[in-house]
Amino acid sequence: MIVLGIETSCDETACAIVDDARGIRANVVLSQLDEHRPYGGVVPEVAARAHLHYLDGLIRQALDEAHLDLGQVDAIAATGGPGLIGGVIVGVMTAKAMAAARGLPFVAVNHLEGHALTARLTDDVPFPYLLLLVSGGHCQLLEVEGVGRYRRLGTTIDDAVGEAFDKTAKLLGLGYPGGPLLEKAAQKATNPGRFDLPAPMKGRPDCDFSFSGLKTAVRRHVEQLGTPTEADVADLAAAFHHAVGQSLLDRCDRAIKAFKGRHPADEQGGGRHLVVAGGVAANKYLREQLAKLAAKRGLTFTAPPLALCTDNAAMIAWAGLERFRLGQTDGLDFAPRPRWPL
Ligand code: KG4
Ligand code: ZN
Questions:
Q1: What is the CA(309)–ligand 2 centre distance, in A?
Q2: Best probe residue, ligand 1, of 165, 276, 312, 340 (max atoms within 8 Å of C-beta)
Q3: What is the residue with the minimal CA distance to atom 7 of ligand 1?
Q4: How far is CA 217 from each of CA 57, 132, 179, 257, rounded to the nearest angstrom?
């Protein structure tokens, strides 16, 4: 079984081809960073036009890399939302056109489900598992009980964690995209304990997140410093990582208790994994912290390789394949969705 997937919901134009033996036959990602950098963030109109410009060529490239003809593909999947609607429309319409022309099934994939199921493409992770989904637009703790079956334990009440990384990086004059730049800056810290930032929500009895207060705390330090030096920025970046880490660990630990109560480890390997997914899962410090927590609680920690954490089409092709083999396809009347909770 071979599925071609398309991702166009934000600022990556991507096409990938996967098979049901968990093989990634092709995985082409074109980042639009250069197009958006002058604006310091993603401009929806610019993104939609770029997707339209590049997508056809990327699909051709993916088929060539996989040495496949469209006739050998069993289904076409595309991100159907949530995301910037102009881009989603480009991907969905392209996928529908291909499906209609070749008489192939079409699967509209929820972008979040793509992130949520990626660990099953790269590792042997049976349902149910606990998922921390941390990206630019989302920050959630979910029990993944099966394809299409998600129980949300917590979510952010303001900013997503990736958003906090991006905004804090901007405050520190690090540019765009903020996540990786802030991580690099923190690695240069000589006095990581110098600034004390609050770990948001720590100790609260739920599993929710909040990051806007942390960003404000960083702003206050920046204002006090006047013009922060490179060393100040590095130390603040390290303090930010520490505070985010403390918050995520506290929230996850609470979720682990709830998850274990509902899903004791079973013979098939279920109830044994803590999975992290989404762009922020590319952060090495946070991965290490989460791995330690999982070990302490007797869970296996699973994180997809870095390139499959940030937006890509392999995750969309894979989620499409998981749905397709359960018979869950969509009609060509599917309407792209700017908002689509899991
Ligand atoms: O999943 P993703 O590629 O797109 C969304 O669906 O949002 O996530 C992008 C987010 C951005 O906020 C970016 O700054 C963050 O992931 N990110 C990182 C790192 N790499 C990407 N955050 C922290 N550390 C990183 N190394
Ligand atoms: Zn994403």
A1: 8
A2: 165
A3: 136
A4: 45, 25, 18, 30
| Residue-range domains of the chain with CATH | 2-116+308-324 (3.30.420.40), 126-303 (3.30.420.40)
- pLDDT by residue for the chain (342 residues), tens only, comes to 999 999 999 999 999 999 999 999 999 999 888 888 888 888 899 899 999 999 999 999 999 999 999 999 999 999 999 999 999 999 999 999 999 999 999 999 999 999 999 999 999 999 999 999 999 989 999 999 999 999 999 999 999 999 999 999 999 999 888 999 999 999 999 999 999 999 999 999 999 999 999 999 999 999 999 999 999 999 999 999 999 999 999 999 999 999 999 999 999 999 999 999 999 999 999 999 999 999 999 999 999 999 999 999 999 999 999 999 999 999 999 999 999 998
DSSP 8-state symbol, 69: -
Separation between Cα atoms, residue 235 and residue 186, nearest integer Å: 7
What atom in ligand 1 is closest to the CA of residue 282?
26
Give the list of residues 6+ apart from residue 139 with CB closer than 8 angstroms, or none: 133, 155, 156, 159, 160, 161, 162, 209, 211
What ipTM did this prediction achieve?
A: 0.98
